[in-house]
């Protein structure tokens, strides 16, 4: 899983090192890179393993080919996605479009989200985190723990 939060900086060539634990998780899944796209939920970059993008693509494909929602989702996620491969040092080169969307200049946070992770500009994330914590507290009763009976 992608857990915790790590801060890294762009190097002079515009590359950033992906946290070792994130690379290890992706490697165990059989990937030498990550799929990134601009989040449409917030001002961050979404980073997903290939199988998660395939899952969202399959979900989009369940919609009628003539349904407007299908085009909206495909355009918002799939057409904006880029497959970024790790170099020999475990770095990726984020595109200027992705960096601009997240307003990242130099420093960024890699934020674990379980099966995916996000990349944020640090100040923007700190503001988001404060609000997210408040909303999580208000909505905590909606998070159900699945009970399984052992037979």
In CATH, the homologous superfamily goes by the name: Transcriptional regulator MraZ domain
Rg measurement, Å: 17 Å
Q: How many beta-strand runs?
A: 8
Number of domains: 1
Structural class comes to alpha+beta
Strand content: 15-25%
CATH class: Alpha Beta
End-to-end span in angstroms? Answer: 29 Å
Oligomer: single chain
Task: Give the integer mean of the pLDDT values.
Answer: 94
Spell the H/E element sequence. Answer: EEHEEHHEEHEEH
* CATH topology-level fold name: Chemotaxis protein chec
**Unreliable parts:** none
The best one-word shape is globular
**CATH architecture assignment name:** 3-Layer(aba) Sandwich
Helix content: 25-40%
Enumerate the strands of the largest sheet in spatial order, edge to edge or round the barrel: 1-7-8-4-3-5
Largest sheet: 6 strands, antiparallel
Total number of helices: 5
């Amino acid at each position: 899983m992608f857990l915790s939060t790590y801060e890294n900086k762009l190097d002079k060539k515009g590359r950033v090192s992906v946290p070792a634990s994130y690379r290890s998780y992706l490697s165990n899944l059989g990937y030498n890179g990550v799929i990134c796209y601009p989040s449409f939920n917030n001002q961050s970059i979404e980073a997903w393993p290939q199988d998660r993008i395939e899952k969202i693509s399959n979900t989009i494909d369940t919609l009628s080919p003539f349904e407007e929602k299908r085009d909206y989702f495909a355009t918002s996620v799939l057409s904006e996605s880029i497959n970024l491969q790790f170099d020999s040092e475990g770095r990726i080169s984020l595109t200027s479009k992705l960096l601009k969307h997240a307003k990242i200049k130099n420093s960024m946070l890699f934020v674990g989200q379980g099966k995916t992770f996000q990349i944020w500009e640090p100040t923007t994330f700190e503001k988001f985190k404060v609000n997210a914590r408040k909303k999580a507290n208000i909505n905590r009763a909606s998070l159900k723990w699945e009970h399984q009976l052992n037979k």
